[in-house]
Amino acid sequence: MSTSRQFRLAARPVGPVKASDWDLVEAEVPSPGEGEFVVEVTHLSIDPAMRGWMNEGRSYVPPVQIGEVMRALALGRVTASRHPRFAEGDVVQGVFGVQDHAVSNGDGVQKVTLADGISPAAYLGVLGMTGLTAYFGLLEVGRLQEGDTVLVSGAAGAVGTAVGQIAKIKGARAVGIAGGPEKCRLLVEQLGFDAAIDYKAGDLHNALRQHTPARVNVLFDNVGGEVLDQGLTRLARGARVVICGAVSQYNNTESVTGPSNYMALLVSRATMTGFVVFDYADRYPEAIAQLSQWVSEGRLISLEHTIRGDIETFPSVLLELFKGTNTGKLVLELA
Ligand code: NAP
Q: Shortest CA distance to 51 belongs to which of 28, 77, 79, 71?
């Protein structure tokens, strides 16, 4: 490939993203300077957080600026290097952006050794940021104990599928909330969740009562809004509410209103804690080793929803997340 294409932010979206929020720009394939290497991007991680990165305003990372390459975690192969630690042919993972080729100085980049029988996309999923988020969110922020009941929203998504499975590995009861009967069936029949509730079927309140008879010790929330509000009604005494994300709110055109059932925290002597996985960066190696072991033992199933396409399909693939098309980690594999 002699030219490289990049998605550059053109406008701050209002509501759901649209293709015109980016400019698709063609450029020469870059050459590495001293201490740099060039990566050909093969897999783009499609994350709900991308929608937030497009907004102006204070967050846990600076917003993508107008004219900048759209931020994205990605997997790729080094095609040219003038860097002492990275050689041509290395498979690497990092924040390479939505583009065919990226130049890197190695900051925040990890080498990846692809294992037989594990798809490359898994290194962006359960063996990447997704798995790390589930691991630290559940075990550190949620302080999971054997015998606990874990209720996870967005359960059939990338983080959610890992949370429920880790809960089971640790001897807890796992109850998921997901959209639609097929996703719910998969959670129970393939991933070993004890129960799954279809929030689109209505009467979430009674379904939660039915499936969490001993109430909930860890509420791991990926979704926010009404689902979080209903989850709060089921807290056990001393429960930990883990605020991982709020995907139902990311396309809001009006400001988010907080959960009206927050007094459940007082009644249950519960805590509600937000977290960002990056804060655990110094412990990633330990977590990746554990997650890899569980995968190799067949105890943690890596579930990816890989869409194969040209980089031009990026805006429509990002929209699929908010439509709930994906089961497991959504990845765009660049053709
Ligand atoms: P994901 O769950 O794989 O994908 C999004 C899912 O959210 C969809 O499949 C859909 O599933 C559900 N959804 C979409 N719109 C919704 C709505 N309006 N109401 C309810 N559910 C909706 O995404 P992920 O990568 O695993 O991320 C999950 C959450 O973790 C996100 O909130 C993300 O921002 C957060 N996160 C946080 C950190 C951190 O460090 N704190 C790190 C990574 C991710 P259904 O079909 O079931 O509706």
A: 71
